[in-house]
Design goal:
alpha/beta; Transcription Regulator spoIIAA; 4 domains; five-stranded mixed barrel; globular
Length: 431
C-alpha cells in the first residue's frame, strides 16, 4: 500500500514540474509516507525529519509527510514538517506547495489545483500512478478497515472500509497486463470484504477475481495476479474455487492467522477461531494443492502465556506455512490494546520469535526441498544482492536465485529447473 501511494504522490509532483532524484542531499522537496503498524517505522520518521531540519540551515528545503499517521503523532509532526496531509487530500498537494510560497511551473497552472478539497478517497484513486516498475504493479481496490482488531491502528489512520469501483479495478489490471506487467497485486486492508460496503451496488470479491480471470483469458499476455491481505472471517470457499479456475490468478495465498490460540484470537478481536482458519486451509489444500501459504503472526501479545504460544507452534506444525511474517508485539497508541499492560517481557518475545522461526524454517525447507529437480516458471526481478546471479520469484513467491547474468530476462517469466533448496529460497538453472 505504501508503494502504491508513493507512485501516486510522485505522479502529482512530476505533474507540477518536480524531477525525481535518488540523492536526498540535492532535493528541494523531501517527503515521507509513514506506516504506523509498528513503532519502529515511526521512530525512523523522527530520526529522518531531525536530519532534514538540520539541512534547512544550509539550503532551501520543503518537507512533507503523509500516509498512515496516528493522531498523537500528527500533532507532533505538525511542528516538525512543513506540510502534512492525508492521502485522500493528495490532489491538494500542488496548492499546498504553492501556498507555502514555492513556485513551480505546474503550480502556476490553475488546472492542476482545480479539484475541491475534501476527505474523499476516490480522489486518490483518480490519480494515475507513476509505476516504479515495468513488470510489477500494485492496484488498490479498497481503503480502510472495519475490523478494529485490538492491536491494530489501521482503522484510526485509514478510516472505515471504502471499495473502489470494480470497473476501474478491472480496467487498470487489464491495462497493466496488456502492457506486459507480469505481477499485479490487488491491495486492501481486508480485500475479501470488498464490495460489502456497497451491497447491491457493487460486485463481491470472488466476483471481482472472476472478472479479472475472464479478462486474463482474453489477453495473450501471461501474468500472475495476487491479493493482500484477506481476513479469515470473510474468506469463503468461493474465493478459492475461483482461483483454481483461472491460470492468471496466482496460486499463492497470504492468510493472516496472528495467533494459534483461540483465547488470544478473542482478545485480539480477530472474529475467527482456529477451526475456521483450519477449514479455509483445508479448502486451499483440496482445491489448489500447489498453492503456497503465507501468514502473519504476533508473538508476545498482552497476556500471551507459554501455553498459548505453544498452541501457535502447533498451528505452524499443522499448517506448514511457506512463509510467516512474525512480529513481536508493540503497543500502538489509539489501538484498544494500548490501554492494557504489555506484560510479556522483551526477552520472552524475542525467545518466542526465534523458536517460531525455527519451526517455520523446518517446514519451509521441506517444501522447498520437494521442488528440487522440478521445472518451474520464475519471474526474474533483478540481480541478487551480490550481483553474481539473477533473482526472481516462483508463482508461489518463493525467492529463487538463477544461475545466469542475462539481464535481458529481467521482467520476464522464464522456465527453470530447481537444482537446490534452502530454508526460504531456491537455486535454479535456466531450462
Amino acid at each position: 500500500m505504501n508503494i502504491s501511494d508513493s507512485e501516486r504522490v510522485r505522479s502529482v509532483l512530476e505533474r507540477i514540474g518536480y524531477v525525481w532524484t535518488d540523492n536526498e542531499e540535492e532535493a528541494n522537496l523531501l517527503g515521507i509516507l509513514a506506516c504506523s503498524v509498528r513503532q519502529k517505522p515511526i521512530d525512523k520518521v523522527y530520526n529522518k525529519i531531525s536530519q532534514w531540519n538540520r539541512w534547512k540551515n544550509k539550503r532551501n528545503l520543503v518537507t512533507f509527510i503523509s500516509g498512515c499517521i496516528l493522531p498523537t503523532d500528527k500533532e507532533r509532526f505538525l511542528k516538525l514538517f512543513d506540510l502534512i496531509f492525508s492521502m485522500s487530500e493528495l490532489s491538494q498537494l500542488p496548492a499546498m506547495i504553492r501556498d507555502y510560497g514555492v513556485v513551480t511551473p505546474g503550480a502556476l497552472d490553475s488546472s492542476v489545483t482545480a479539484m475541491p478539497a475534501n476527505e474523499n478517497i476516490f480522489q486518490l484513486w483518480d490519480v494515475k500512478p507513476n509505476y516504479q516498475s515495468d513488470f510489477e504493479a500494485y492496484v488498490p481496490i479498497q481503503n480502510g478497515c472495519d475490523k478494529f482488531c485490538t492491536y491494530c491502528a489501521v482503522p484510526y489512520t485509514r478510516g472505515r472500509e471504502v471499495s473502489r469501483p470494480s470497473q476501474e479495478i478491472i480496467d487498470e489490471v487489464a491495462h497493466l497486463a496488456a502492457r506486459g506487467y507480469k505481477s499485479i497485486t490487488l491491495l486492501g486492508q481486508n480485500v475479501n470484504s470488498y464490495g460489502l460496503d456497497k451491497k447491491g451496488e457493487e460486485i463481491t470479491f470472488p466476483e471481482l477475481l472472476r472478472a479479472i480471470g475472464e479478462a486474463g483469458n482474453k489477453l495473450q499476455q501471461k501474468f500472475w495476479l495476487y491479493f493482500t491481505s484477506p481476513h479469515p472471517s470473510d474468506m469463503t470457499r468461493e474465493v478459492i474455487e475461483v482461483i483454481s479456475q483461472y491460470d492468471c490468478l496466482a496460486k499463492q495465498i497470504h492468510l493472516p492467522l496472528q495467533s494459534g490460540d483461540d483465547r488470544m484470537l478473542i482478545k485480539m478481536k480477530r472474529s475467527h477461531d482456529l477451526q475456521k482458519y483450519r477449514e479455509i486451509v483445508q479448502d486451499i489444500r483440496q482445491l489448489i494443492p500447489q498453492a503456497t501459504l503465507f501468514t502473519d503472526i504476533i508473538v508476545g501479545f498482552t497476556s500471551e502465556t507459554e501455553e498459548a504460544f505453544q498452541n501457535t507452534v502447533e498451528a505452524f506444525q499443522e499448517f506448514k506455512f511457506n512463509m510467516a511474517y512474525i512480529a513481536k508485539y508493540s503497543p500502538r497508541p489509539g489501538a484498544a490494546s494500548y490501554r492494557w499492560e504489555d506484560d510479556v517481557t522483551n526477552d520472552e518475545k524475542k525467545g518466542r520469535y526465534q523458536r517460531l522461526t525455527l519451526v517455520l524454517k523446518r517446514h519451509a525447507y521441506r517444501y522447498n526441498q520437494s521442488l528440487v529437480n522440478k521445472e518451474m516458471e520464475i519471474l526474474v526481478t533483478g540481480k541478487d544482492r551480490k550481483g553474481q546471479y539473477l533473482q526472481g520469484l516462483t508463482e508461489g513467491k518463493i525467492i529463487t536465485r538463477i544461475e545466469s547474468l542475462d539481464e535481458s530476462l529481467i521482467g520476464k517469466i522464464v522456465p527453470a529447473k530447481i537444482i537446490s533448496a534452502a530454508d526460504f529460497s531456491l537455486t535454479a538453472q535456466l531450462a
